[in-house]
Amino acid sequence: MKTRADHLTSAPRRDGGFTLLELLLAFMVFALSFAVVLEILSGSMRNTVRARHFTEAALLAQSVMDQVGVVIPLESGLQLSGEDEEYRWTLEMYVYEGGEQNTDPVLLAELIGIGLMQVDLYVSWGEPPVEQVRRFTTVKALLAGRMNEAP
User: Other CB atoms closer than 10 Å to residue 115's CB: what's the count?
Assistant: First the structure.
């Protein structure tokens, strides 16, 4: 039989439930984890939209560049612009003047009778506060006697 001293020294028994403090702490951990997951997902969505814009701008640039020398004449000083859905583009052409390298590609091209034209294409989308612009550049070759003629 238990004496009165045994009842006083034994620890009180718990009924196996959680305290209010434990529940609040668990809920806070869940809420913070959920907020982190939502932030990761929204960042992923922003990156997906950004990648879509870059890809579509590059595809439009490739399409316009493919027309240079075929539909669009190779003429020094030529400036064209256009729109394609939400994208705007501006094309500029001028005689290529070479770079800072040891061999001058312009001199080499003139010696063999080829003229070089630099083609710059700017593709933009969005509105001015957050407008994005990407530049695409290439060099096109044509016979030196046809530098200012349409192909």
Answer: 20
From residue 132, alpha-carbon distances to 47, 79, 84, 88, 99 in Å are 14, 20, 15, 10, 28
Best CA proximity match to 89, nearest among 61, 130, 68? 61
Tokens of 147: 């530098």
User: Bridge-partner residues for 84, per DSSP?
Assistant: 87
| Residue 131 DSSP SS3 | coil
DSSP letter string, 29-83? HHHHHHHHHHHHHHHHHHHHHHHHHHHHHHHHHHHHHHHBTTTB---TT-EEEEE
**The tokens 């020094």 sit on which residue?**
76
Amino acid at 149: E
Write the pLDDT tens digit of every residue in 13-25.
556 788 999 999 9
Q: Which residues pair with 134 in a beta bridge?
A: 123
What is the model's pTM? Answer: 0.67
- Per-residue confidence band for 52, with pLDDT thresholds at 50, 70 and 90: very high
Which CA distances in Å does 51 have to 58, 72, 99? 11, 29, 31
**Domain residue ranges in the chain:** 17-146
